[in-house]
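Backbone geometry tokens:
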Amino acid sequence: MKLTKKASEFYESWLGSTHPLEDSDPEFTEIYLNFLFDDVSSEINLSTHERLKITLAYLAVIGAKRAYGRLVTAALKNGVKAGEIREILYQAAPYAGFGKLEEIFYAMNEAFKQAGVTLPLADAGTTTRENREEKGLAVQKEIFPAIDKFNADAPEDERHIRKFLSANCFGDFYTREGLELKFRELLTFVYVLSLGYAKPQLLGHIAGNFHVGNDRAKLIDVTTALVPFIGYPVALNAFAAIDEVSKKG
């Protein structure tokens, strides 16, 4: 397997120069790693931590247990805090669905144990059953200033979903300690992008990212960084969505 100098450096930093497919499929592994760690790395302006975190977000949502576990180890090795890794997974739940993530929790916790991380980690919640909807709605307003009109326009028999979004998605998760709001919204772009079929939500969260300060360049970089994982159809759809929202100003 022949890797470029840049790819070799990233490979050693992230994976410790061992990949499960290296022995059985060296040709494919060479193409994949050179693309991921050289071609893509040359086109993006993201820190190692940012890149590891957004990749963890993607792998969690698609349920890639083995790859996710390896990347948790790589993230810890590169200085990403265990609490940050946990928050990325927790926040994925309302997007991927709670049931889909159970195996990913096992992979995360096994990687933590192997790295000597003591479990459970400290609690990070900041809301109660009584104030979670109020606090969640306040966060929504920071990201989506027109949320009140959006909620008011909902059909009567769907308004419980709007309450679920405020109380659960935002109140239970976005309000947690460990990650700043701006980065949480960037993660949500990744979660929704990873689903591949949620265009209205993708457009909404692109606009939300713009509102909290994640600009077009950031979203282009994040999407580009994920191309080896999401594939070209999903990436091209994401670029089209970014273009669509950008044109609206």
